[in-house]
Amino acid sequence: MSNKVNRRDFLKIMGWGGVGATLAGCDMPTTVTLEEGKEQVTSYLVPEEYVIPGVGVYYASTCLQCPAGCGLHGRVREGRILKLEGNPESPVNQGKLCQMGQAGVQTHYNPDRLTRPMARKGSGLTPVSWDEALSMIQSKTSGLAGERFAWFTDTVSGHQAVLMDAYRESIGSSRHYVHEIINNSVARQVNQDMLGDPQPHLRFDKARVVLSFGADFLGTWQSPVHNAVEYATFREAPRGVLVQVEPKMTLTGANADLWVAVRPGTEGVFALAVANALSAKDPARLDGLPDKARQLIRRYDIKKASRITGASGDHIVKVSGWLAERSPSLVIAGASAEGHEHGYDTVAATMLLNIILGNIGKTIESSGTFPFPQLAARTGGTKDLIDFAKAVDDKELDVVFFRGANPVFTAPETLGLKEKLNKVGFKVAFSMFEDETTRMADLVLPMYSPLEDWGTHVAAYQPGPSVIAIQQPLMQPLYDQTRGFGDVMLSLLKMQKAAGYSDYPDYYAYLRDAFSAMPGSLKNGASDDEFWASVMQKGVLAVDTGEGRLSANVIDFDLPENPAKEGAYHLVPSARLGMWDGRHANIPWLQEAPDQISKVVWDSWAEIHPNTARKLGVKTGDAIKITSASGTIEANVYVYKGIHPDAIAVPMGQGHEAYGRYAKGRGVNPLKILALNTEGKTGELAHHGTEVQVSRTSVRDAMVQFGGSETQMGRKIIATVTADVYERTEGEA
Amino acid sequence: MFNTLQLPSGHITHCGARFVNRFLTPSLFLLVFSALLVLSAGAAHAESVVPNAVPPVGTHDGDDVPQPIEFPHNTHVDVNKINCMYCHTYARRSPVAGIPPTSKCMGCHSVIATDKPRIKKLTEYWENKEPPPWRKVHDVPDYVHFTHEKHLKRFVFDNEGMEVENVSEVCAFCHGDVKNMTVAHKVKPLNMGFCRRCHEANEGPFDCWKCHK
């Protein structure tokens, strides 16, 4: 195009003629007008009454990008979903939505969606009809001994879970494996044992100090958007103090007032040392504790704890000072504390701090009793993955239904799951994408996207009033050979002749009926239709969970005298809001969004401390080999001070061998080289407990990083003062 | 702070003064002068049909766009005096004017002129449950946020003395004399200069982000 104004010409025009000449450029026809008659414009045949072309209509639904269960408002225009935002009616996210939720449209419109059922014929998958697919399932399950069938899923809840249970029971199986690599299973067990509630409501908004041991509550922990809303209140005047203790700086760590690097696995020692310092000032704090707990606290004086954890003694004193002065506080523990062989004891040590500080009932509240246990979340961690691999290896399973989880990607290589899965005769994947697990399936059932399907969801963590979150379709399905999960379950239940399901033509009818059957106390005198309409409009149904009381039971626990091995490198498979456990690696927006700490896009990297880098003789961009007993991965180094010198952090999420054009063949998967150590009391995978050797390679590559420079090059773009200067000039932090 | 001009109709306009004030360049006088020319040329026209408005200036010689049915705008608007907004009903409610739904056509044509070849073709589409695949004649690029709703508000509904019956004169600002066309034909440039001059003459908003969001 000869009339095109390029940048150079534009500047010339600006220079010569001033503004008048520039705006004269507005009349150039080829750059600013479109060709006529090239595009079609299709009218409605018969318009819906409320539809105005060009004007969006908003519907409420629920986000399924992670298990937090945030409410959605979707903007629909001309029958297509264009934009997702948070639903203000949802007590979970209160109108906010994170980047993963926003990117839900790219899950839905993803070009790698599975569009038709496929069955294994020989070595490949070939298209089949739905009728063929369902009758294959029927023939494989008829006459099957009950326990030889299993579900393998991610977190499920609501009426889908009810149908899954009904189907499983119709076959006679009790096996439902629930697997999430990002989980809080160890902490749930500690909560259950010490507080009598696996998932109490944490009140960041009420706390004046938050001491977090590796719980990335603003990024990947429990309910990040809700936590962030409460955190905003926590930071309002009088400003709460956040202390983060962890081996690798998380997004939450980057927000902390004090970030303390500890040697991997020594979080419990730090917690007990803080308790020690608190009791040194005020011995009465330990009143009522069992002798064993007192001994444990006495064992770690500041000097000893400082030696073991690698944290400075001053920091332990400072943290205990804050906790003593500011009440109530909140002590929490996340992945890096849980993920060791003594993870349970570490989390118990942090909970002990809560008891000593009197936080139970103040910043840790009972979640009450959810009145519909059949709808409650089935959540899990990695124990089910290990158990499943064993069951498969022992040839205990003939038919497995996979949904949501991608165990072939998330399982450590030493578990040998990929090979073991060949021992399962018939594997069915309910899936939207051809991921590593779906690829191994014998039958692939293409599912509706979450924005096309019906559902109800009850999040495992219910902050504030508990709700049943409603998922309703925001648009017509894109592909006519895909089906809704509930619809398929009903078809299967009908084939099983399970009692009570024959009357429902589809899942919608089932849900309508389920809501009509809800107790009158939830309907407020509305008719069934009015009740349904109001629930659809709001997107959530609040249910009363009653008043609960937490216990403060100090259980018998013990830590190894020195839980860390000095000088050994530990692999930290880090998680971040965005990639999550790898389920979002096929979303270009999230690949493109830089990591919050390293700012790397579209790739993996290995985060190491400058001292470690010096020892290895590498700098940012050099590739290193990370070798565990179970394998080797190679990644470019990102040198950063926000990590303990003994830790090597490689983010989870990349390294897919399948999962579509955006995910496949990109970066490395640190989960592959995890050792099969398990947490002693819960049997969960000790995912932060893998020792690795690190060596340099001769490869050097440019890191694709947003920003490019760690410093302001002395330009004072953002004025800063050091913490010491601030404390001297502004008083206490 | 704005220079104001008294129009013959008694309406006060700023004559793009905001623009002039912001860029005090040697071309100031030229700009004011040309704006005056535009104003005086438009004012005479504006008084007669569309009050308080200066029609935009500019022409374009558009391509002939073949349509599935050669829709006679002239028969509908000129001969039968049907208001533009009767069919393009979304124009006053939405950024887009919208092509009328096929059901709207059939509302009349299930009884009127059913023997005409074009209506037969239309009926065929209707019975096949397919809207005719119309081709787009007027469009602006995706980075231009144009809204029919706001323009109709300014020139028709919030315009004192404007008769809604004469709305086709307002439509004609950007779409030309569709009243006397069969299928629509692009006769206005619809480029930024065209928009800009009109916004200047009619005191439309002049910030970049008003149109480029």
What does this structure look like?
The complex is a heterodimer of chains A (733) and B (213). In chain A, the strands form six sheets. In chain A, strands 6-5-17-16-15-7-8 form a seven-stranded mixed sheet, with helices on both faces. A six-stranded mixed sheet of chain A has the order 22-24-23-26-21-25. Chain A contains 26 helices and 26 strands. Helix content of chain A is 31%, strand content 18%. Chain A is of the alpha/beta class and 733 residues long. Chain B has 213 residues and is an all-alpha fold. Helix content of chain B is 42%, strand content 3%. Chain B has ten helices and three strands; from the N terminus they run ββααααααβαααα. In chain B, strands 1-2 form a two-stranded antiparallel sheet. Chain B starts with a strand and ends with a helix. The A-B interface holds A 18-20, 23-24, 26-29, 32-47, 52-55 and B 23, 25-27, 30-31, 58, 60, 62-66, 90, 93-96, 98-103, 126, 129-141, 186, 189-196.
